[in-house]
């Protein structure tokens, strides 16, 4: 195929991709079934991780829950088991109904510090021996230091990078080889809108999320280059979620109604819809797509003006001050 013909084909494919994307606004894609599939979720003990676990439990997936906090992880597991107990038997033949006890989904819990690659690899080996091969990997675990750069100990910066970014390398290296062998699987990166654009005061967090997104996009291209179309990738980039992680964050009060913190349940439901329809990326709310686009076309000084108008330039400062006060209070109690 000469270059002129190939250019025509590429142009047609690009236009067709726009048509397909537009059609999804009017025709909702059918959600795939994850019943019986093994789903690993990091950071499952609280926040979005717990909600992801409950959503996958409602869809009869076998859950493998990772968290550094054993107690909170077990609490999530018990919530999932309660959902399993309330589920009605799957519709199908009488043989399937009789086999239901054998196919009843299970929950497995593992205490794992994803910032340590040895812990990740050891836990992944336990999962393979005790559960089997996995189908879905939800890289959800995340932390925030809540310190200004010059006030933040190096150890906290390193931990933020390890948990929010480097852990994705370790979990993916642990589970991707089997996915490649079978040409089957789904990897989900739970990042943040702060991995697409930034604000002041959370340099370590933004850098970690930018890194996670870069890793995800590069891996997506690698899978496409290897013709591994059976392995799906979904990038989740929510705006600030009301989980308490950034409690105190505020923008200009007149603009606050237009950019409210997202309800965790809404965020996860939107992400689940994207995962189950093999959508490559989901930003919530949708205005985040426009913000990201404007960042690429506007001069930096124009972006600074917009930030100041919205109150996004110092939106993290109340959160940082609140974190500092909390830290000082804890140190005072310890001293007493």
From TrEMBL:
InterPro entries: NAD(P)-bd_dom_sf (IPR036291), Sc_DH/Rdtase_CS (IPR020904), SDR_fam (IPR002347). Pathway: Cofactor metabolism; retinol metabolism. It is found in: Endoplasmic reticulum membrane; Microsome membrane. GO terms for cellular component: endoplasmic reticulum membrane. It holds the Pfam family adh_short. Its EC number is 1.1.1.300. It is a single-pass membrane protein. Gene3D superfamilies: NAD(P)-binding Rossmann-like Domain. Keywords: Endoplasmic reticulum, Membrane, Microsome, NADP, Oxidoreductase, Signal-anchor, Transmembrane, Transmembrane helix. GO terms for molecular function: all-trans-retinol dehydrogenase (NADP+) activity. It catalyses: all-trans-retinol + NADP(+) = all-trans-retinal + NADPH + H(+). Belongs to the short-chain dehydrogenases/reductases (SDR) family. This is NADP-retinol dehydrogenase. It comes from Danio rerio (Zebrafish). The gene is rdh10b.
